[in-house]
Amino acid sequence: MPELPEMETYRKLLSEKVRGKVITNVVVNREKSINVAQEVFEKELVQASVVGIHRRAKHLIIKLSSGKSLLLHLMLGGWMYLGNENDNPDRTKQVIISFGGLELYFIGLRLGYLHLLTEENLQKELADLGPEPLNGNLSLAEFQKLIGNKRGMLKTTLVNQQFISGIGNCYSDEICYGAKMMPTKKADALNEQTTLELYNAIQSVLNRAIGLGGYMENPLFKGDRLTGGYNDHCFVYDREGEPCHNCGGKIVKEEISSRKTFYCPNCQRD
What we know:
It is globular, with a radius of gyration of 20 Å. It is α+β, with helices and mostly antiparallel strands. It contains seven helices and ten strands. Helix 1 (4-18) packs parallel to helix 7 (192-212) and helix 4 crosses helix 7 (192-212). Strand 2 and strand 3 (59-64) form a beta hairpin. The chain has a four-stranded antiparallel β-sheet. Strands 2-3-4-8 form a four-stranded antiparallel β-sheet, with helices on both faces. This is Formamidopyrimidine-DNA glycosylase. Its EC number is 3.2.2.23, 4.2.99.18.
């Protein structure tokens, strides 16, 4: 599932490509991917322009000139491609938004969605999310208060969207590795120093992943050299049996609370 770095990469690249453009056509091939009748969805979007693209947690928010927004959550297996009728993946597209000759394809939205919302409803949808971890939105003092109220394992704590938003399976493992802590370590076992180390790991891992374009498998458009660049730079995630970049020991995979989890038993402590 795309996490904060992947959605931030999408936000940046889509902003460069479609911000300010007018929507000229909409095709909905799967009505379950949207939240209103297909005719209403198409009527509301056509002739509206994109005035901004923002990210909140694992969501993208596409602001329209009508005052409404499209709220995108790709969930598991969802992705996007920006192309045209001669340049697009040979995959089923659940929704297609056209900007003249440029088309934005939404693919794999079987669990994900693209919802048209008023500002009021948008805020309600996002109200339960925890703070953003980057760009000064979460200070060390605030993080200390938040983590001080938790009793569970770091793995389950970090992926809790009401605790901190945007972190999922991949980056929870990468963060634990960066902090040199086992994903099974209990949050209430942290002291002031280890809390600082975990906080710094959240900052460094997420910023590094954004800089490398996240771990998406598919490019956003032809010639896109950024999206998915993190795939070859993971510390532990999806590297079972491979050598640790630090100690050379083998990366281990386990299931923790029904989530696949990767770690280095030599470098990470209880």
